[in-house]
């Protein structure tokens, strides 16, 4: 399956032929001229990512990105700007790239933000993979991929994440997790589980302090929301 990118920009603007180059790499790209048009197109096109090429629009893309994030907070957003227009650390987008750069650099930078199932030319052994939403766990290599991240896990963390991914959207009680991951009925020391959850969040969350995937269910346990 091709990776789908919704591209906001001016088709006629001078600049690097990013769209053409990405299409050559087997990406499926739809180009729209504005943020409102992008929002209308999301339901139809169902993209894996949105790229805002504000340099081609000759305007600051922060407003567009913030509007998109507010309405489509589950989609990664990449902002392309002219030098000095936006602080690269600004949180208006998941990734901010200042011109000039090559199509190859763009491809390398956006790759981690696209679900691995649609990234071209990445081999995988499906029998050893668990894929839930934007999370992908390689059981053999004990590696987890999430938007913008790829981390290697300890055996215990990989097992814990496997159990959570096998029950997506379900509230997993602490007792269940201790039983399946630590093979014990003893739950007197809950800090052991809490610390491991904290480590998992560092591995899969963009901001571990504001977890998007691994939620705490107070006084009960944890739930994995990976869709």
Explain how this protein is built.
This protein is of the alpha/beta class. It has two domains: 4-118, Response regulator (Rossmann fold, 3-Layer(aba) Sandwich); 126-224, Winged helix-like DNA-binding domain superfamily/Winged helix DNA-binding domain (Arc Repressor Mutant, subunit A), CATH 1.10.10. It contains eight helices and twelve strands. The chain has helices at residues 18-24, 35-45, 54-57, 62-71, 103-110, 155-165, 174-182, 191-204; strands at residues 4-8, 28-32, 49-53, 77-81, 95-98, 129-132, 135-138, 143-146, 149-152, 171-173, 214-217, 221-224. The strands form three sheets. The protein has a five-stranded parallel β-sheet with strand order 2-1-3-4-5, sandwiched between helices. The protein has a four-stranded antiparallel β-sheet with strand order 6-7-8-9, covered by helices on one side. Strand 1, helix 1 (18-24) and strand 2 (28-32) form a beta-alpha-beta unit. Helix 6 (155-165) packs across helix 7. The radius of gyration is 20 Å and the shape is elongated. The protein starts with a strand and ends with a strand. The relative contact order is 0.11. The model is unreliable at 117-124 (pLDDT under 50).
